[in-house]
Amino acid sequence: MPFYEQSVDTLIDERTLFARIRELGKEIARDYSGKNLTLLAVLKGSIFFATDLARAIDLPLCMEFLGVSSYQGGTETTGEVRITSDVTTPMAGKDLLVVEDIIDTGLTMKFLLENLQARHPASLRVCTLLEKPARAKARIDIHYRGFVIDDRFVVGYGLDFSERYRNLPFIGVMRS
Ligand code: 5GP
Fold first, then answer.
1. Gap between the Cα atoms of 46 and 99, Å rounded
2. If we measure between CA atoms, which residue out of 71, 47, 62 comes closest to residue 93?
3. Which residues in 33-165 belong to E strands, given as ranges?
4. What is the CATH T-level fold of the domain 8-174, as seen in this structure?
5. 104 assigned to active site
6. Binding site membership of 155 for ligand 1 (Cβ less than 6 Å)
7. CB under 8 Å to 165, separation ≥6 — which residues?
8. Would you say 77 and 103 are in contact if contact means Cβ atoms under 8 Å apart?
9. What pLDDT, on the 0 to 100 scale, is given for residue 79?
10. How far is the CA of 65 from the centre of ligand 1 (A)?
11. Per-residue pLDDT, 2
């Protein structure tokens, strides 16, 4: 029996995830044809999504990784965002697509977009796997979204609870 079976219920199964990621990949490939696409994955949560999404985009592209931390552990945002590891190449002139796991309050993405805009990319857009509109505190222009979900704390497919559960192959909710 898988280790998570006692503690996690499935919210979005693996098959549904991949079907949606394939659709997003097609949409992105259409929109970025002939452009200088760089996927900027926000660590750590978007790691699985970003690598699967990259493989669903039939275009030449670059990948960059940027680490942010907006939580002090637990399940509530502190509103305080830090860049914990930065990209290694200049972002100027690139068509940047920020790939995020989840937009909850939107405070992390607001901070990131302001930070990245100051680096003068050719274009800047947002792709998030999940969006929780019920908790939005900042208005974010989301160009590509996988799924809109209710206000529940989710884990799996990159999303953690105290650094665990990232390796579940689906999106789940913790059983209380
Ligand atoms: P925001 O700044 O939009 O409130 O939060 C963004 C970050 O908070 C996400 O990148 C993610 O790391 C974390 N987060 C928000 N909601 C959840 C959730 O339901 N589950 C998990 N595991 N992390 C979340």
1. 7
2. 62
3. 37-43, 62-69, 82-85, 95-103, 123-131, 144-148, 154-155
4. Rossmann fold (3.40.50)
5. yes
6. yes
7. 4, 8, 155, 156, 159, 172
8. no
9. 67
10. 17
11. 85
The partner residues of 173 in beta bridges, in order of sequence, read 9, 154
Task: Calculate the dihedral angle through the C-alpha atoms of 26, 28, 30, 33, rounding to the nearest 10 degrees.
Answer: -130
Cβ(103) – ligand 1 distance below 6 Å = yes
CA 97 to chain centre: 11
| pLDDT number for residue 67 | 95
Q: Which atom, in ligand 1's list, is nearest to the CA of 108?
A: 2
Helix 47-56 vs helix 14-31: angle between axes, to the nearest 10 degrees? 60
pLDDT in tens, the chain (176 residues): 888 888 999 999 999 999 999 999 999 999 999 999 999 999 999 999 999 999 999 999 999 999 998 765 555 566 678 899 999 999 999 999 999 999 999 999 999 999 999 999 999 999 999 999 998 999 999 999 999 999 999 999 999 999 999 999 999 999 87
Domain parsing of the chain, residue ranges: 8-174
Q: Does the C-beta of 98 come closer than 6 Å to ligand 1?
A: no
The Å distance, Cα 104 to ligand 1 centre, comes to: 6
